[in-house]
Amino acid sequence: MTEDALVIFTPSGKRGRFAHGTPVLTAARQLGVDLDSVCGGRGICSRCQITPGFGAFPKHGVTVAEGALSDWNAVEDRYRRVRGLAPGRRLGCQARVQGDVVIDVPPESQVHKQVIRKSASERVMTMDPATRLLYVEVAEPDMHDPSGDFERLAAALRDQWQVPGVTAGLDVLRRLQPALRRGDWKVTVVLHRGHQDGAARILDIFPGFHEAEPLGLAIDLGSTTIAAHLCSLTDGRVLASAGVMNPQIRFGEDLMSRVSYAMMNPGGDVEMTTAVRQAIDGLIGAVAAEAGVAGAAIYEIVFVMNPVMHHLLLGIDPVELGQAPFALATGGSLTLDARDLDLAVVNGAARVYILPCIAGHVGADCAAVALAEQPNLSPDLVLIVDVGTNAEILLGNRTRVLACSSPTGPAFEGAQISAGQRAAPGAIERVEIDAVTKEPRFRVIGCDLWSDDPGFAAATAATGVTGICGSGIIEAVAELRIAGLVDQGGLMGSAEQTGTLRMVPEGRTHAYLLHDGSAAGGPVIRVTQGDIRAIQLAKSALYAGARLLMDEMGVDGVDRVVLAGAFGAHISPRHAMVIGMIPDAPLDRVTSAGNAAGTGARIALCSLAARRQIEDAVGRIHKVETAIAPRFQEHFVNANALPHATDPFPELARIVTLPDVSFNAAGGEGRRRRR
Question: Concatenated DSSP letters for 269-285?
Fold first, then answer.
């Protein structure tokens, strides 16, 4: 008898075994994977498009053979010929499981689209852009002066705008003479200046006076999501923002998984480079359409990203970042042509600026955070934590700035959680548990009502309650600890120990029943012991990284904490401190910076001075390598406790009293911990 095949869906991380011949759509429905279909599996609607991954996937423990899915059938072939399918795509209703397989569900195939929480925050920009419009009047040709039209344009720019040594590409030169004559020797040029050498380059030319403002893009290329902000290069205002899931997730949820994929699959790095460039190009088209502008009006792009994304965007094999000493191919800032990155939606002459990386696993996104938050100018000792699958941490003040990265993994984003999902309508994002009754209430994305409010069921009828996202699981774990249902070591008590029937047996451990939607055909959402452990491991890695920086700085506390990143903006500081995700600090001094990396990218887009500033600052930031730090393991183990095994949390104790309970695996009565 043939063993059932293992089917793993990304980005949800849900998996299960299915008999050979099972349609992918059927497998998705049985696992509760968010895969759309409105035609009943007849191959008409195309909503169920999926992308299978082939090769070795060390993170998932599988190697996917080429024959893992059935061959193309007549329905798929007809659909591909008539309506077209993107390369690598299959129809989930037609493709059948034939072996172990990793299947990516692209955003457009998801019923509940992920909420990309990387909107641009309000920020006053100091405008000194690299790209601007200049109106010039050019001398007409003269029989007595044999100079070319471009030379006279260059002379006009030098005389009227003090721009020396201007250059231009062939595309501009081909359009130069018609533009001059149509404009009666008056033209508007789109000029780009280098921030270091001041080199001037004409990107575009228009006859006469051209009023349309040049546009730029600030792109935060994360390992999970890609966010783009379309900005005016005249006044810095954000015209539109959009985001998309990073398609590289199908190759691995975290950075090291993607490095492993590149190591174990020849050409894997090229696959990932192609995937992310195509996603960025599509995102640019989407954000331009949202703003109602043509892609040709976009003349500049600024990228921020972690080192692995940096290398994969540039088409550099990231293999060296997967092993000590984690050497970057290049860590300095880069200025490129957009065409070098296969970006076709923007203007053909568009320029790309990539912020410098700080070190092997502290990237340009961390540099952008430093540019936005400026810890080097802070009189207080500030800890800045950019929460993600790879947390990047800054600690510093006017005297000194330190940086490190810590591999937290995807648990904070809902992955590796039994009922976890990414942020989408219907996902639980807020949780409260009554300390006396042990009864829960919660809120879901897309609804402002709590689950015990009148009208909640009606308000969530369209989306349902689908799972729990990262902010929700953090609050759930913290509330379980506050309610005395989880002890300091992270162990969940039984119904007998805790006095609530919501604690249900699950194998040799217990789980907390948060929501039972089975009566209406919905999911049963529990917080399991495995979920607690996943959060413990993630938060311990983050806390240990912060503690190493504090050791290096010679301090035991910080004056304030800043939670950066799209995810960090939605974390409750109180709950984060209860689980020991961040060091103890006055709660009113724990703030959110929103998408600080995206803000830093926008600052660099709008200011040449800012580019020079961050390049200088990066050279002064001291990197602490967590991988070789002698005390990392000690800090990690101590941080496994909720909130911590040894570090005092006096500020937390002022606002929350944590029950002193202890549960053992054998069951029995809860007991007070001896002091």
Answer: HHHHHHHHHHHHHHHHH
Per DSSP, the residues of 602-661 read HHHHHBHHHHHHHHHHHTTPEE--TTT-TTHHHHHHHTTSSS-SSS--HHHHHH-----E
For the entire predicted model, the pTM comes to 0.81
Phi, psi at 175, each rounded to 5°: -100, 0
- Tell me how far apart the alpha carbons of residues 485 and 465 are, in angstroms, rounded to a whole number: 23
Contact yes or no for 552/438 (Cβ under 8 A):
no
Distances (CA, A) of 213 to 191, 202, 216: 12, 15, 10
pLDDT tens digits along 287-332: 999 999 999 999 999 999 999 999 999 999 999 988 878 889 999 9
Q: Which domain holds residue 350?
A: 238-361
Whether residue 248 is found in the same domain as residue 185 = no
Distance of CA 51 to the CA centre of its chain: 21
- The mean predicted confidence, pLDDT, of the chain is 89
Going by their DSSP bridges, the two strands 401-406 and 622-623 should be labelled as: parallel
Question: Which of 539, 388, 413 lies closest to 469 in space, CA to CA?
Answer: 413
Residues 6+ apart with CB under 8 A from 492: 480, 485, 486, 503, 509, 510, 511, 512, 529, 532, 663
Sorted by sequence, the CB contacts under 8 Å of residue 219 that are 6+ apart come out as 226, 227, 228, 229, 280, 283, 301, 302, 303, 304, 601
Provide CB contacts within 8 A for 211, sequence distance 6+.
none
Question: Reduced to 3 states, what is the DSSP secondary structure of residue 40?
Answer: coil
Total domains in the chain come to 5
* Contact status, residue 659 vs residue 673, Cβ threshold 8 Å: no
Residue 202's nearest CA partner among 168, 152, 176 is 168
d(CA 104, CA 52): 6
- Cα–Cα distances in Å, from 514 out to 430, 431, 443, 496, 503? 12, 9, 12, 18, 10
Residue 64 lies in a domain: yes
Q: Is 352 helix (H, G, I), strand (E, B) or coil?
A: strand
Q: The tokens of 506 are what?
A: 């699950």
- Give CA–CA dist 218/237, Å, rounded: 12
| CB neighbours of residue 211 within 10 Å | 8
As given in the structure block, the two tokens for residue 323 are 């092993």
Contact at 8 Å (CB) between 11 and 104? yes
Same domain flag for 405 and 418:
no
SS3 57: strand
Which segments of 183-267 does DSSP mark as H helices, in order?
A: 255-264
d(CA 639, CA 579): 9
Domain at 188, CATH number: 3.10.20.880
Is residue 158 located within the same domain as residue 305?
Answer: no
- CA distance linking residue 553 with residue 401, whole number of Å: 9
Report the amino acid identity of residue 606: C
Q: Which of 188-202, 239-253, 655-669 has the highest mean pLDDT?
A: 188-202
What CA–CA distance (Å, rounded) separates 432 from 480?
9
Over residues 145-176, the pLDDT tens digits come to 778 999 999 999 999 999 999 999 999 999 99
